[in-house]
Amino acid sequence: MTEFNRRQFLESSAGVAAAATIGTGAAVFAPAVHAQTLALKPEKGAKLRVLRWSRFVQGDIDAYMVNVKKFTDKTGIEVRVDNEGWEDVRPKAAVAANTGAGPDIILSTNDDANLYPDKLLDVTDLAEYLGRKYGGWYQACHALLQPDGKKWIGVPLGAAGNYLVYRESMVKAAGFDSFPKDTDSFLKLLKALNGKGTPAGFALGNATGDCLWTNWLIWAFGGKLVDSSNKVVIDSPETIKALEYVKEMYPTFIPGTLSWLDPNNNKAFLDGQISLTNNGISIYYAAKNSPEPKLKEMAVDIQHAAFPIGPVGVPTESQLFFNQMIMKYTKYPQAAKEFLRFMMEKEQYDAWQTGAGGYVAPPLAAYAAGAIWTADPKHTVYRDAVKNMRPGGYAGKLGYASAGAAADFIVPNMVAEAASGSKTPKEAAERAQKRAERYYKV
Q1: In a domain, 204, yes or no
Q2: Residue 376: which domain range?
Q3: pTM of the predicted model, to two decimals?
Q4: CB within 10 Å: which end of the chain, N or C, has fewer?
Q5: Does 143 share its domain with 247?
Q6: DSSP-based three-state secondary structure for 166
Q7: Is residue 409 left, alpha or beta, with left meaning phi > 0 and alpha meaning psi from -120 to 50?
């Protein structure tokens, strides 16, 4: 953990669990022995409907539904779970919030909860209970779902780590014995891979998760959408340098990335069309668990790495964060909170993470000690996704403006325009500045 992240965590976390030192010297957290209990009384005759994003990893939904059945068996509360694509959850959640009708619980992405905080049930008691019991929430969770520093408008679920997935044999064939750790060497690798006929591919369409690499790009060069006072500052010399860099990246990509959404790079990688992309652990999971010998062989060759560090000199990670929102219109608020409590308790959460193969990194410090993160060394880089992530609205305060700007894909669109040459870097930055100012009104 960087000193910055460590300080933020200690200042903001409600965790009271003791830290134990393990062989690597890292601190892990054990559940507090005397954690406060949370007394919830589900309403008589309660029935719940949950809307969540569709799985990219089959084990995710399988393990989730096992836990749902355990909850129903224990409480008698019937739970219906509907699955939708990431791009479809956001508009359906907005409709539900605006009409006051729909699912009781919605699992959505990033800081969508800040689009309609007044439509969400206050879950402060639940969030504080879980934080006390399991070592505290990582700082990003507070920023995303406790925007005023007091009231929790959602319960963090975790994050699908946005890291680099690559074919080790192809990287070595391109002349690199290890994966580059800085942006200059990274660009050399991209050019070398393309020269070998094994190009990279990064989504430049409106992909909810896979376009998050564009945040890394801008931050790595010192750019940002807004400053700490929420003033829009995306049209800056630092951003221009990042956009000039992506203009050199783009010719090394496989054709078609301008229209890529979240499923595209998974398919291209598993089809052998690309040797490098950014993704969650789902590509490796699919290859490792495939019945096809060719994909099982590919799994042995797959490796993961953090994004290289740019001129700013520090990691700049952007991850796909998952939240759990209880809609205020629900007829069964106590039952809904009890459902989320049950699903987040160690017995259920560990089993779910294991079933999902590490697809979702934990938001609570205690869960970083889960066996799934060391059972396979290729999982480990994903473990700290929530701990190390910067929220998409960096470096400002999160709220409606940050959520709206993210939902409008302002940064990804700017990067795509500059990369493809449809606009110069300066023109792309100016357009992004104007679009963002519509959300961050002075």
Answers
A1: yes
A2: 6-18+37-161+319-388
A3: 0.88
A4: C
A5: no
A6: strand
A7: left
Which residues, at least 6 apart from 263, have a Cβ–Cβ distance to it below 8 Å? none
Identify whether residues 293 and 306 lie together within a single domain.
yes
Q: Does 292 lie in the same domain as 195?
A: yes
User: Total domain count for the chain?
Assistant: 2
pLDDT reading at 164 higher than 80: yes
Count the neighbouring beta carbons within 10 Å of the beta carbon of residue 195.
12
370-407 tens-digit pLDDT: 999 999 999 999 999 999 999 989 999 999 999 999 99
Place of tokens 């393309």: 194
Same domain? For 310 and 326 the reply is no
Q: What is the pLDDT of residues 127-151, one digit of tens each?
A: 999 999 999 999 999 999 999 999 9
Three-state DSSP class for residue 158: strand
DSSP E strand stretches across 30-154: 47-53, 78-84, 105-109
CA of residue 212 relative to chain centroid, distance: 9
- Residue 396 belongs to some domain of the structure: no
In this structure, the answer to whether residues 264 and 177 fall within a common structural domain is yes
pLDDT of residue 442: 57
Q: How far is CA 318 from the centre of its chain?
A: 7
C-alpha closest to that of 320 among 202, 397, 212: 212
* Residue 30 domain flag: no
Cα–Cα dist 231/218, whole Å? 16
- Tell me the two tokens of residue 427: 């023109």
User: Quick check: 46 pLDDT over 80?
Assistant: yes
Best CA proximity match to 312, nearest among 240, 217, 222, 241: 222
Rg (CA), the chain: 21
- Output the domain CATH number for residue 261: 3.40.190.10
Pairing of strands 163-167, 302-305: antiparallel
**And the tokens for 158?**
């975790």
Compute the distance between CA of residue 85 and CA of residue 52 in angstroms, rounded to an integer.
8
Helix %, strand %, coil % for the chain, to 5?
50, 15, 35
Q: Is residue 1 part of a domain?
A: no
Interior angle at CA 392, CA 389 and CA 394, nearest 5: 85
